[in-house]
Amino acid sequence: AAELGKKLSRGEILWEAYFGLGRCYELNEEYSDAVNYYKMAISVIDRIRSQITVDTYKSSFARNKQKVYESLIRLLFRLQKSGNSKDLREIFHVVESAKARAFLESLGESQVNIRERLTPELKEQEKTISNQISLAIRKLTGEELSGNQRMNLLQELKRAEDDYSLLLQKIRIEAPEVANMVAPVPCNLDQVQDQIIDNKTALIEYFLGEKESYIFFVTKREIWLHLLPGREEVWRSLKAYLKVLSSRPDGEFQGIKASRRLGKELLCPELWNIPDSIENLVIIPDGVLYYLPFETLILDMQKKKSSDCFLVSKYKISYSPSSSSLLFLTKETSMDYSKDLLALGNPAYTWNGKTNKKNVIPSEILKEVYQNEGFDLASLPYSEREVRGISKYFHKTKRDIYLNHKASEKTIKNIMLDSYQILHFACHAILDERFPFRSALVLSKEDSMEEDGFLQVSEIYNLRMASDLVILSACQTGKGRLEKGEGVLGLPRIFFYSGAKSVVSTLWKIDDKSTAIFMKHFYGFLSQGMNKAQSLRLAKLEMIKSKYSHPFYWAAFVLNGEYSSKVNFSSHN
């Protein structure tokens, strides 16, 4: 099969054949040959991936390839334990090679502004397909549709969205800047210890496998590797706790016992005796661990008071899909922002109910489509208080605030977003795990045919920004479709692609009243010169001391990406 794959230049045959040979050699205890064939399989997989040009396609491509990385990691771990392997650095590099590769390659592509170089033909194709998507949505609002008619129309919408994905692929193929790019290479341990970690930082990286999982604990000078159970066992151990965290509380937090248990299960022994000099924890999750706010785990088994023993009480915590993508996002860039803040809040969600078929408004149509999927678009009055509260930390000439009807999709598309240091969205968000392109930030209802009020992933994909920080103060903005090896395909990922360095997002449906208070604390600490991770930590500690002490109110907010820089505030009022 391997010879045939090489002769026909068929990578999909070749990687499977090399993987099979690796398994055979491993079973025959010829470990050196097994390692070589597993590495050859990975090399072919990498080559195929680099030829795919759309992020969502790259992500799903990796779905059935993780078994190759897992087999190599498991064998190297076994050899390392028996003293036959060089060191842990090779295992770390394989783990990094398995994680968020599509995301890393997309970050590399994001440095090229492709849209500026589109031919008139491609621009017209993009417009045509966008109109097809709108038309399919309009048809879905037709009265007295049968079940079959609705199903056919949904399929029509899906085909139009697929056509849009294929067009993005074509655009990237025809863009020489992208075609000639060399895909970023996964980082090694030396780069992590030299360029990401300082003496006050530790990195914890997870790899969840089918049979067994692994946790790396890395400091400036040392690395440890420990074994964890397989991904299904981790999920069974975690799911009840996640439900307690994300459910609106009725009384005191009931998850203390589970938090202590999970702290013991998911955090390696070194963390129990970590030097006092460590202040920052960078978490690289995997699988279901993307949905866990590690801030809520408890290390000290002796303490009784939860607020004293949550991980957040001692450490600044941030997240990233991989060490390699974090290294990319932390590269120093010099930006001269003309404005400090762009904030949108309390969008006008007053739709008219039934659609007038003679004068169809896209916002009414798309709202019906989403509501049929079970999404609730109630008004968010406290989000206006949130935006007004945070705006006080910025000079009048350095902030732009859009509320109610002005908090619209048209506003976002007509602004030079790369002029702003911080983008803040206080609105509803819609998460569609089946169709990631339909996930959206919900802005004000549009009374025109131009926009529908739903800033969808496919539209954010085409925005250009250079923001140091994006705040997605909306429900479940940190969630999305979970892909093996890639992590969450959701809104933060697309904002990183569009140019953001850091994104604060949410893991569950948040309360708009407590969120207004939380954000005021967060921006207050930022304005005092605290860095992003410290400001988020201190805001959480303020909530713990208040009537909003339950983790439901504060643990949903997580920081992804670059974590250690400070926001530059112009002199405020």
The proportion of residues in beta strands is 5-15%
Radius of gyration: 24 Å
The largest pleated sheet is described as: 6 strands, mixed
Distance between the termini: 71 Å
Output the number of helix runs.
Answer: 23
Strand order of the largest sheet: 7-6-8-12-15-16
Overall geometry comes to globular
Low-confidence stretches: 352-363
Structural class label: alpha/beta
Average pLDDT value?
83
Helix content: 40-55%
Number of strands: 16
Structure keywords:
573 residues; alpha/beta; 6-stranded mixed sheet; 5-stranded mixed sheet; globular
Molecular structure report:
This protein is α/β, with parallel strands linked by helices and 573 residues long. Helices cover 45% and strands 15% of the residues. It is built from 23 helices and 16 strands. The chain has helices at 2-8, 11-27, 31-50, 55-61, 66-81, 88-98, 101-109, 120-139, 147-174, 176-179, 189-196, 231-246, 256-266, 306-309, 323-329, 362-372, 381-391, 409-413, 457-460, 491-498, 512-527, 532-544, 551-554; strands at residues 201-207, 212-218, 223-229, 280-284, 316-319, 339-347, 399-404, 420-426, 428-430, 440-442, 454-456, 469-473, 480-483, 487-490, 502-506, 557-561. Strands 7-6-8-12-15-16 form a 6-stranded mixed β-sheet, sandwiched between helices. It has a 5-stranded mixed β-sheet with strand order 3-2-1-4-5. Strands 9-10-11 form a 3-stranded antiparallel β-sheet.
